[in-house]
TrEMBL record:
InterPro entries: DUF2848, Fumarylacetoacetase_C_sf. It comes from Paraburkholderia pallida. This is DUF2848 domain-containing protein. Pfam families: DUF2848. GO terms for molecular function: catalytic activity.
Length: 230
C-alpha cells in the first residue's frame, strides 16, 4: 500500500488536500480506441521484441508501492523509457483523473511484460481532477509528453485522449475480466505512439490539458541510471 497526498483541483482555482492509500495498481495495455493507431504501437513494441497481446485491452497488476510523485527515479541499465497516460483513481466512492508515466524496462519487456512493468516506478502528478467535472467534455482533453534526450527537450508524444478507450469503456472492460475498481485502486490507462520511436531519455515530462476548463496536470521527473554489474 502506498499513501499519496493528492490535491483535488476543483472547477474554481481551489484545492482540497486528500491522502489516498493506493492498495491496487493496474496498468492497462493496448487500450486504443483507434485500431490503426493501436496497431502502430503494437508494431513499435514488436520491433523491440515484445510479443503481441493475447487480447486487448490487457490489465497488468503491479505493486502499489511503484506509484510515486518523486521528481527522480532510479532504473537499472539504459533500456527503460516513459509513457504519458491518464490515470484513474477511486476513493470515497468517487473516480478521479490524474496523469502518470508507465515507465517500463524495454529489455525485460521483450521476454516478460508483467515483470517489465514491475521493474520501474510509475511517476504521477500530485494533483487530481474529479471525473464528473470533465465527463461532458472528455474528448477535448489533450495528452503530451516531452523527453530530454542528449540534452535536448523534444516532443515525445502528443494527441487527444480519444486515442484511448474512455474511462467508462475501460472500466467496463476491466469488470468483464473480473476486475473490481474499488476504493484505493489506481489504473494507468494506455498511451500514444512515440514520435520518432520509443527511446530512453535523461528526463521525462507528462502533461494532461483540459482546454475547456483551462487547466493542466503536469509532472516532470529525471531518470538516474544504475550500472549493471552482472
Amino acid at each position: 500500500m502506498k499513501t499519496i497526498n493528492f490535491k483535488i483541483e476543483e472547477n474554481t482555482p481551489k484545492y482540497t488536500n486528500r491522502a489516498i492509500a493506493i492498495k491496487n495498481l493496474i496498468i492497462a495495455g493496448w487500450t486504443g480506441r483507434d485500431t490503426i493507431a493501436m496497431e502502430n504501437h503494437i508494431r513499435e513494441l514488436e520491433a523491440l521484441g515484445v510479443k503481441r497481446p493475447p487480447y486487448t485491452p490487457v490489465f497488468y497488476r503491479v505493486s502499489a508501492d511503484r506509484i510515486t510523485t518523486t521528481p527522480c527515479i532510479q532504473v537499472t541499465g539504459e533500456e527503460s523509457s516513459g509513457e504519458a497516460e491518464f490515470m484513474l483513481v477511486r476513493e470515497g466512492g468517487e473516480t478521479y483523473i490524474g496523469i502518470a508515466s508507465d515507465h517500463t524496462d524495454r529489455q525485460v519487456e521483450t521476454y516478460g511484460i508483467t515483470v517489465s512493468k514491475q521493474m520501474c516506478e510509475k511517476p504521477c502528478a500530485d494533483t487530481l481532477w474529479r471525473l464528473d467535472d470533465i465527463t461532458d467534455h472528455w474528448d477535448a482533453l489533450l495528452l503530451r509528453s516531452y523527453a530530454i534526450i542528449n540534452g535536448e527537450r523534444v516532443l515525445y508524444q502528443e494527441g487527444k485522449v480519444t486515442a484511448m478507450r474512455s474511462p467508462e469503456d475501460l472500466l467496463a472492460q476491466f469488470a468483464s475480466r473480473g476486475g473490481q475498481f474499488d476504493d484505493g485502486t489506481a489504473m494507468l490507462c494506455g498511451t500514444l505512439a512515440a514520435i520518432g520511436g520509443i527511446r530512453a531519455a535523461q528526463a521525462f515530462e507528462i502533461v494532461l490539458e483540459d482546454p475547456v476548463l483551462r487547466r493542466t496536470l503536469r509532472h516532470a521527473y529525471s531518470i538516474e541510471t544504475l550500472p549493471v554489474a552482472g
